[in-house]
Design goal:
89% helix, 3 helices, mainly alpha
Length: 98
């Protein structure tokens, strides 16, 4: 397996772990991917074909975009829960005042 194939495999495994909300595994996979990427660039650097590196970057950016979308969804859910909590406290306060 080439170094680039291993990097793609790492990204795929990372994506799967994130999709299954297995954040502990995702953190480990991210560390592994980062180290493999650094090692690959350090050892093979200029020998790696530019189109292959660009494709790897595109895959990374796609994963980052999916993570951003998940973060935005979670943030919206947290804001909605906060508003619901605030509304229930106001309602509870109105009941006590009656």
């Amino acid at each position: 397996m080439s170094a680039l194939e291993a990097l793609y495999r790492d990204l795929s495994a990372l994506d799967a772990a994130i999709a299954h909300d297995d954040l502990a595994t995702a953190a480990d996979l991210l560390d592994t991917y980062g180290q493999r990427l650094r090692d690959t660039v350090t050892s093979a650097g200029a020998a790696l074909p530019a189109p292959a590196l660009r494709a790897l970057l595109d895959a990374q950016l796609a994963l980052t975009a999916r993570l951003g979308a998940r973060r935005d969804t979670a943030a919206a859910q947290l804001r909605q829960a906060h508003r619901a909590n605030a509304a229930s406290r106001v309602y509870a306060g109105l009941e006590q005042a009656s």
